[in-house]
Amino acid sequence: MSNEAFDERYELRTIAPALDEQGTPTDETDAWMRAVGLGFHETHPKPEHAATAVAEYAADDQTWLGAYVRRPLPGSVDETWPAGTFAWFRKALSWGDGSTVDTQAISAVTVRPTERRRGILRAMMTHALEQGVSEGYPMASLTASEGTIYRRFGFGCAIRERAVHVRRARALPLLAPTSGVVTVVTPEWLEAGPARDVFARFDARTPGSMVRNTGTWPVALGLRGSDGEPARDVRAAVHRPEASGDVDGYVTWRVTEGHGRDDDTVLEVVDLVYATDEAYLSLWEFLLSIDLNDVVRYRRSRLDDPIVAALGDNRAHDVDHEEDHVWLRVLDVPAVLGSRPFAVDGSLTLAVDDALGHATGTYRLDVVDGRGTVTRTDDSPVDDADVRLDVADLGALLIGSVSPVTLAAAGLVRAADPAAVTRLRAMLLPARTPHGITYF
């Protein structure tokens, strides 16, 4: 659809989530939230829960975008609801060495089924990324509900994750002794105490980790459910190192009882955050020691989870599902590559193709003492660059969980000399496995 045809049918409007003088969502805010709820098959929250959610969106300084039908039919929700929704806000991504880069975090992307294939998503994405560039974001980020939508806009999948379960009967004892002390606490104590400090330490040491939304915390800590009501079935525990009062890890969980002879009783991990590997293994050992359940299920496992190697019988561990998680989209190549650490020194030229034009060009990367400087050498991708790739694949490689050697084998990274691809892999190698436990 041409821009003229789109503009004739729709109007793009940005709004800020807001409450009125009575402390309830404004009409425009409420309509936008109802459109999002329709897109994700969510029930509309009670008024008091909606007000809480809006206050949390405002605390995150979210910008909301809607595509509104200019001439809605009588009786249609199009009279007040946007036919497409889109949101973005600032969210820092960790490089794992204490340094970060700001990203334009994209969320709440929906298009009404009656308005599909009319250019709404492209118009919203194009507008948002142009705003991101003008606001100085080096990169955009998102977590996707579908895996085939975003590559055409320059996003690459930088982190994958697994949903796993471990059968208790075969898991213990672990092959190596754990250390420290695990104690049961209340979710309220976690919320008032160490939870955010532990997450900050996890975030600083973990490549690919991103700060959490304001509204994530009450759910992760077991204070309320996703419906806004108080959660009454979540427990919590913390880990402390030997001879230390400092908390370096915590877990929240709930147990769902099986109702049939062949149904497992499942301990579901709600949130598992750790500042040290010792805390992670000790908390897993604790979970596997809880009686009256058959299976521990964790939906945020990284691909090289050390618990697999630690189990007494590693066949107790099974993968239920694996999928894409964090997607990254480079907007400013020099700013992004200049913000991250590198494992080895060296120099490469990168030719980047970008259908939207934000990152198109050829760049020389020089790394000295683990830090890079980037110089644009041409406004177009040149054939004699060491490595040529699409901006989506640059996003996928960026934090080091995806190897350029793998993408070269898939035909997505091209180099005249394979040694250049190997050198790029060595330069991007992270100190720890990238891991994201934040959704938005």
UniProtKB/TrEMBL annotation:
The active site is at Y150, F440. One of its GO terms (biological process) is aminoglycoside antibiotic catabolic process. It comes from Curtobacterium luteum. Belongs to the acetyltransferase Eis family. The gene is eis. This is Acetyltransferase. HAMAP family: Eis (MF_01812). The keyword Transferase applies. PANTHER family: N-ACETYLTRANSFERASE EIS (PTHR37817). Residues 333-435 form the Enhanced intracellular survival protein domain. Residues 208-316 form the Eis-like acetyltransferase domain. CDD domains: NAT_SF. One of its GO terms (molecular function) is aminoglycoside N-acetyltransferase activity. Pfam families: Acetyltransf_17 (PF17668), Acetyltransf_9 (PF13527), SCP2_2 (PF13530). Keywords: Acyltransferase, Transferase. Homohexamer; trimer of dimers. The keyword Transferase applies.
